[in-house]
Amino acid sequence: MNTVINGKNVNIKPIDFEAICELEDLGFDINTISKKTFSNIRTAVAFHMGLSLSKASAEIEEHIKNGGKIEAFVPLIEAITNSDFFQAITQNTESEE
């Protein structure tokens, strides 16, 4: 799966434990997935494109300024939330409550 940001083909990385740790190191917070939308998009762009957070912000801003749609970022977030690992974490957390 991939998406296009600023005319760049972005390959979506698989999400496993290591990827979740990398995402957290970049600032992604599983508990705020639905609350910090823009921060999570920036983190996902940084992760999938191999960029710093500031460069990811610049890519996002350029994409939007040039007429790009916010929907281009949806596959990056869905790769995380739909991953088997993320689903297992979510189910395990819900079953503990």
> Strands across the major sheet, in which order?
1-2
- Write down the secondary-structure element order: EEHHHHH
State the end-to-end CA separation.
Answer: 34 Å
Q: What's the story with the biggest beta sheet?
A: 2 strands, antiparallel
Number of helices: 5
Determine the structural class based on helices, strands and strand pairing.
mainly alpha
What's the total number of strands?
2
Pick out the low-confidence regions: none
Helix content: 55-70%
Q: Can you give the mean pLDDT?
A: 87
Percentage of β-strand residues: 5-15%
| Global geometry | globular
Radius of gyration: 13 Å
Summarize this structure as a short list of keywords or feature phrases.
mainly alpha, 97 residues, two-stranded antiparallel sheet
Description:
With 97 residues, this protein is mainly alpha-helical. It has helices at residues 17-25, 37-49, 53-65, 74-81, 84-96, and strands at residues 2-5, 8-11. The protein contains 5 helices and 2 strands; from the N terminus they run ββααααα. Helix 2 (37-49) crosses helix 3 (53-65) and helix 2 crosses helix 4. The longest helix has 13 residues, at 37-49. The termini are far apart. The mean pLDDT is 87.
